[in-house]
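Holo prediction — nicotinamide-adenine-dinucleotide.
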Amino acid sequence: MNGKTISLAVILGDGVGHDVLPVATEVIRAAAGAEGVEVEPQVYDYGALHYLEHGTPLPEDVEGLVRGLAEKHDAILFGSAGLDPRTPEDVNCRDLLRALRFELDLYVNLRPSPLLHPDFCPLKKDAPIDLVVVRENTEGLNVRVGGNFKKGTPDEVAIQEDVNTYKGVSRICRYAFEYAQRHGYPKVTMADKHGSIIHAHGLWQRVFWQTSEEFPDVEGEHYFIDTLCQDLLFRPEDFGVIVTNNMFGDILSDLCAGLVGGVGLAASGCIHPGRVCMFEPVHGTAPDIALKGIANPFAVCLTGRIMLNELGLGEAADLIWEAIRSAVREKKTTADLGGSLNTREVGDYLCAHIQKSSA
Ligand code: NAD
Ligand code: MN
């Protein structure tokens, strides 16, 4: 951050990013502005638009592109990558998303799932739900180490290695405890399966409890992942920060998102503290409704809330949260949440609410 200005890369990507990103950017600007910080967005057309203009969704050197973005900006806001109504099926900017996560070593996938309104919880339970999945984002089963032997024959062997390093596990556990401390959560729950995945999750056990000793004011708690899935349905209000590996975190964060209303509201940050980070909604390109101006901008606005929090603008982040809560109460929402507004109208409501509350 250069004094009171945040340089923000806004990457439209494919599909619905074109509807929701410009609107959410205005909401983020309004919220930061209320804290006296100017957000200067620079919009990049990588993805479908780049393809229509240049014949490819991305420049050739994607890693170089990512390094350039990180040098130039303070943060990156990403739409989504996948199907776009304007381009052939196999054209998309997925490689950019992967390069951003790995090239910038964004080892935290932060997925908060706070319940905005009791109606959004499918359990029909009036309990305060505030779950935060801290998912390891650079290791595990997702590193693409492995291979096939005798591929395509009845004797085929497929091996996918689960990579867990001392460095990787310690830094994600530490982040979870620091997050709990910073945001006032009393405990951190670690989920693994060390009874059967003895080597990799044995490491998680040792490192988690070791890290827990450095945070005497935050309780450490362990759950087996399967038991946790069940208990999250029975008593979601008893959990807060949950730290786990890449694959379990992927699944668990969707379960948590489902408990508070699903993809239209799910936000995430790919974070490496102290470095330029990338923030993205959880939903995909929504090809069925993309480019019609009717998509729900809440997920990207809530993504902006995570971003502002990470940039140290907690008050601005709270303004976005309060504006969205008010929109939900007043039914100023898009059709997927039962309202009748379009994307732009919801954005205007949020900006006006932010201006009013900060005046
Ligand atoms: P999706 O999230 O795009 O859509 C699922 C459903 O949710 C659709 O009915 C869609 O209309 C709705 N939806 C999504 N975002 C919405 C919004 N902002 N407002 C209102 N409704 C919304 O998932 P999908 O249909 O499985 O995938 C579509 C494409 O997106 C695929 O190409 C997939 O690979 C890609 N994808 C990308 C990401 C990502 O970039 N992180 C994540 C998931 C899927
Ligand atoms: Mn997922």
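READOUT: The chain has two domains: 1-111+272-359, 122-259.
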